[in-house]
Specification:
The structure holds two protein chains of two kinds. By secondary structure, chain A is an alpha/beta fold. Chain A has 13 helices and 14 strands. In chain A, the strands form three sheets. Chain A has a seven-stranded mixed β-sheet with strand order 3-2-4-5-7-6-12, with helices on both faces. In chain A, helix 1 (6-20) packs parallel to helix 7 (151-163), helix 3 (60-72) packs parallel to helix 4 (87-98) and helix 9 (243-253) packs across helix 10 (268-280). The longest helix of chain A is centred in the N-terminal third of the chain and has 15 residues, at 6-20. Chain A starts with a strand and ends with a helix. By secondary structure, chain B is α/β, with parallel strands linked by helices. Chain B has one domain (20-313): Rossmann fold, CATH 3.40.50.970. Chain B has 13 helices and eight strands. Chain B has helices at 2-6, 17-42, 58-67, 81-86, 91-98, 132-146, 164-175, 195-198, 204-210, 223-238, 266-273, 277-287, 293-316; strands spanning 73-76, 122-125, 152-157, 180-186, 189-190, 193-194, 214-219, 243-248. In chain B, helix 2 (17-42) packs across helix 3 (58-67) and helix 6 (132-146) packs parallel to helix 7. Chain B is globular. Chains A and B meet through helix 3, helix 4 and helix 5 of A and helix 6 and helix 7 of B.
Amino acid sequence: MATMPYRDALRLALHEEMTRDERVVLMGEEVGLYGGAYAVSKGLLDAFGPERVIDTPISEASIVGVGVGAALTGLRPVVELMYVDFLGLVMDQVGNQAAKWRYMSGGRLTVPMVLRTQGGTGRSAGAQHSQSLESWIMHVPGLRLVMPATPADARGLLTTAIRSDDPVVFIEHKALYALKGEVPDEAEPIPFGRARVAREGSDVSVITYSRMVHVALEAAERMREQGVAVEVIDLRTLNPLDLDAITASVRKTGRAIVVSEAHKTCSVSSELAVLIYEHAGDALRAPVRRVAGKDVPIPSAPALERAAVPSVDEVVEAIVGTGLGKERAHA
Amino acid sequence: MRVEGHIAMPQHTSPPPETRVALLRTMLRIRETEERIGASHLRGLTAGSMLHLSIGEEAIAAGVGLAMRDGDLFTTHHRGHGIFIARGADLDRMMAEVFGKRDGYLQGKGGSMHIADIALGHMGANAIVGANIPISVGGGLSAKALTPGVVSVAFFGDGALQQGVLYESMNMAALWHLPVAFVVVNNQYGMGTRLERASASLRFVERAETFGLVAREVDGMDVEAVYAVAQNLLEQARGGQPVFLMAHGYRFYGHGRKDPSPYRSKEEEQAWRLRDPVEQQRVRLLEAGALSEDAYEQMLREAREACDKAVAFATASPELPVEDLYTDVYVEQEAN
C-alpha cells in the first residue's frame, strides 16, 4: 500500500492502462503540455508522446464526437471534459451518440470511451464551474456513471472504466484532488455496481457518493458521540447502481438518509429515495430523508457556496430527524 | 439556375470503360432500391412515418462511393441509403432494417436513419444533422494510428453547413493532418429551407480552404465528374491532407417521401429532372458505344430482381421479439 492523493491515483491508472494497451489515448483541453487543468495528466505527454496524449482546441462538442468515432473504430479514448458544467456543449455526442450506438445498431457497434470530467463545489468557481450534473447522465440509458470518493476507488474504478467496452462518464470531484489515501500496489480493477460500506452501523443508513461520503462520515462520527451507529454506503457507481447493497443496509437499519451535492429537484437523491421506498419501504421505521444541494445556482461567495450544498450539520440534523440521537434521548 | 452558373466544370478524362458502366450500374441499383422503398413506404410496409429518399442524388453516392476503397470508413446523414448501397450494402438486410425487421442490419432497432455496418466501414447513418462529422474525424484518428492509408469520409447535406461542429471538425482534421474527407451532398434544401435562406455566404469552398483543407466543388448530376474529383481528393486525404467536396445535386422527392415540397417550384423540379444523373450516364454510355441497349436492359432487370428479392426477404422476416427490448443497451449487460 502506498499513500497518495486522489489526483495521483487517477494519473497512476491512466499511466498503467496506457502502458498496458496501446489503443488507449488521452485527449482533451490542456491534457498534454499543461498537464491537465487539475494536474491529473501531468507527465503523461512526456511518457506517451503527442500521438497518444492529444491537446485539443476548445471545441468540446467535436472533441467528444472525435472520441466516439475513434472508439467505434478501434481506439479506446479517454476524453477529458475540463468541467462537468460543459456537458451542455457536448450532450448531443454524449446522449445521442455515445449512449445510443450500441443499442441502435442492434449490438453491432460499441463505444469503449471514457469521458473523464470533474464537478462539485469548493473553489468559489461560480455557477458555471461548480455544478453536480450527474442526474443528466444517470437519466440516459446506455451510459455508465462513476463517481469515486477515495484515492483507491479513483484508481481502481478508472482502471475498470478504461477496460470497459461501454461508454463511461467518470466524474471526479474538484475538492477531492488533494485528498490522500491508501492505494494498492498492484492495479486492481474495481467492478462496477458494487457499493462500498464506508462505515458499518446498525441504526441508520446514509446512502451517498463522491465528496459527500466524507461529509457523511464526519456526521457519523459526531452521532457516535450520541450513541448512534450510522452506516455509510458509498455507491461508487450510479450506473450500474448497487440496489442490493442499498436495500440490505436499509433493511438492517430501518432508517435511510440520502445525501447528494446535486440540486434536490429531479435528482439522483430523488431517484434513490424512491428506490428505497419501492424496494425496502416495508422495512422503514421513519420516512426517508434527503440532504441535497439547494435549488439555486451555485454562488461564488464562499459562505453562500457552502450554504448551497449539504453540510455535516445538515446530515446530523437529518439523522436526528429520523428519531435518533438527541430526540430519542429526550423521549 | 445558380448551380450551373457558378461551377467551373473541371475537365476530366473519362474513367476506364468498366468503371463507367459500374457507375451506371450502382446508380441504377440505388434508384431502383429507393423507388421500391418509397413504394413500400406508401403501402405502409416500412417502419414509421419518416422516410428520406436520395433519388436524384445517385451520382454523388456512386461517384464518391466507387472512388473509395475497401476498408475505408464513412458516416452518412439521415438520407444515406444510396451511399451505403454504393459501398456494398446487402439489399436484403438493408430492406429488412427499413421495414423494422429482425433480419435487418440492426435487428430493426435502428431503422432507416441509423443503418451501420462496421464490416463495410459504415460507422453509422446519423439523424442529428452534422453529428456524424466529428465522428468521422474520430475515424480518421483511428485510421492514422491503426490503419494507415485508410480514409474516413463524412457525408452530410447542405443543412449541416451551418452547424458549428462542422467547423470544429474541419479545424481538428487539418490541425492533426488526419485522413478525412468532408463531402457535402448539396441538394439545395435543408428540409424546406433553401441554402440561400440559411447561409449569409455561399462561398463554401473558400470557407473550407480557410481551415486548411483542399476544397473543390463539382456538378453532382454528372457521375463521372464526381468520380474523377473524388478520386483525386481521396488520394490527397490518404496522405493526411483533409479535403472538402461540395457536390451540387437535387432531391427529386421532398424532404420525406410524402412531402409535396410547397417551398419550391414545379419548374425548378422539372429543370433538375431533365438533368437526371442516371439518365445522363445511360445516354452518355449508349452514345459512346460503351454500353448496348441489351446490356442496359439486363442491368435494369438485375436491379429490379434484387429489389424483389429484398422486399420478399424483408416481408418474410419477423420483428424482433419484445423480450429483446433490453438487449444491447450495454456490452457488459450483466453489470446492470
